[in-house]
């Protein structure tokens, strides 16, 4: 009889949070994780959980290591949102500014009143680019991409509904960012030069966990060829896991109807990149990844994602005034006509309610990726996996939910832990 291979699990946890490691292991032993994953939690500036396990390449049983990085998919949007918040903080941009203030040619065909915030909050009316299937040349040619966007007509009247700009968010924000930034950098270049290489040293030096200190924040948007040997290979999960996921959360079936509707927004959005294939494992293609698309194809580690959002929480990257603008959602939940359920999306972030009903900001990524920062509890949770989940993202992912619930259960055991009052939202 063939002996079952033991799943490698590594990393450290604070004593109070030791049960999180057990939950992380169970995700693998119970068959919820079919490839590899990493999970990092920071509480009040201290790393309390830092775990990784499984396989970076399941086909050849290449183990997920401490320095393994993975495709973060739409968690890239949270990175982009932070870069935009820095421009706002520096007085170079206001969320309420019309895009034409920086990009006059954008205002053609009914786009003249679209604001930066509409683009960031997915209400700009451009959830896909009608009639466009990008060639590789167009994706890497800034002038061609600009021309295509300038001549587009919105799919619906801007500002009238929310429809997740899954891919188009990246093309739009990068073009705007280049025009606002004084050095005309892409989001990826700005992040590398203004954040990644400036703010890492010593961030984890005061905690007692045995963590290797990296020279920069290990997140990359484009220009990442030198990181390929560390990158986890995406793995499409089998039908048996799909059945388990649906049994866990029946609302997945409703979301699937939106995702697979041939006349829906999602199908139209996928056609913008149809030359690369229809499955998300197409992001194993290094040619596609080399294009710095700040909506979907960043790569990094869970530790780096947590680390970045810690720099927002502790005031390193943003002033108090700017942080006040982004830390909580200002509007009520809106139904998303791309995804098929109500969500809170503003300033480039998605906002969630924690198990303790406090607000979190961050972003989910397809396949099970997640980063969330809980302002009231000074807590950040980040999870990455290369085993693509059918459920997609948000609160429908069993593996992340199990870990987050356990973290918050452990959090309540900290002496004198007090639950902050829930934050109200203005209508």
TrEMBL record:
SUPFAM superfamilies: beta-lactamase/transpeptidase-like (SSF56601). Residues 24-396 form the Beta-lactamase-related domain. This is CRE-LACT-5 protein. Pfam families: Beta-lactamase. The lineage of its organism: Eukaryota, Metazoa, Ecdysozoa, Nematoda, Chromadorea. InterPro entries: Beta-lactam-related, Beta-lactam/transpept-like, Beta-lactamase/esterase.
């Amino acid at each position: 009889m063939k002996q079952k291979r033991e799943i490698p699990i590594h990393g450290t946890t604070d004593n109070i949070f030791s049960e999180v490691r057990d939950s992380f292991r169970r995700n693998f032993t119970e068959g919820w994780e079919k490839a590899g994953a990493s999970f990092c939690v920071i509480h009040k500036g201290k790393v309390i959980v830092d775990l990784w396990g499984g396989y970076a390449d399941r086909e050849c049983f290449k183990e997920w290591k401490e320095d393994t990085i993975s495709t973060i998919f739409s968690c890239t949007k949270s990175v982009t949102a932070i870069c935009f918040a820095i421009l706002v903080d520096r007085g170079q941009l206001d969320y309420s500014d019309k895009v034409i203030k920086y990009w006059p040619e954008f205002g053609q065909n009914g786009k003249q009143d679209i604001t930066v915030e509409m683009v960031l909050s997915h209400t700009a009316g451009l959830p896909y680019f009608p009639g466009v299937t990008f060639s590789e040349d167009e994706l890497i040619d800034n002038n061609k991409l600009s021309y295509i966007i300038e001549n587009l007509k919105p799919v619906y009247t801007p500002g009238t509904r929310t429809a997740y700009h899954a891919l188009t968010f990246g093309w739009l924000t990068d073009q705007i960012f280049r025009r606002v930034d004084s050095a005309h950098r892409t989001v990826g270049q700005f992040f590398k030069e203004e954040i990644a290489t400036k703010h890492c040293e010593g961030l984890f030096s005061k905690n007692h966990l045995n963590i290797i200190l990296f020279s920069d924040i290990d997140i990359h948007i484009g220009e990442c060829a030198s990181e390929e040997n560390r990158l986890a290979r995406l793995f499409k999960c089998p039908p048996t896991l799909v059945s388990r996921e649906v049994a866990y959360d029946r609302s997945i079936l409703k979301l699937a109807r939106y995702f697979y509707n041939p006349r829906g927004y999602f199908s139209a959005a996928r056609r913008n990149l149809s030359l690369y294939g229809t499955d998300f494992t197409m992001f194993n293609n290094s040619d596609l990844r080399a294009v710095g698309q700040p909506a979907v194809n960043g790569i990094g580690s869970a530790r780096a994602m947590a680390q970045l959002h810690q720099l927002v929480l502790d005031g390193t990257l943003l002033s108090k005034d700017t942080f006040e603008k982004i830390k909580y959602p200002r509007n009520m939940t809106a139904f998303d006509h791309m995804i098929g359920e109500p969500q809170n999306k503003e300033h480039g972030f998605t906002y969630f309610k924690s198990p303790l009903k406090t607000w979190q900001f961050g972003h989910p990524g397809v396949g099970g990726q997640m980063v969330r920062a809980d302002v009231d509890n000074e807590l950040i949770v980040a999870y990455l996996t290369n085993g693509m989940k059918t459920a997609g993202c948000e609160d429908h992912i069993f593996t992340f939910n199990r870990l987050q619930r356990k973290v918050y259960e452990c959090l309540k055991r900290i002496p004198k832990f007090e639950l902050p009052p829930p934050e109200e939202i203005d209508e």
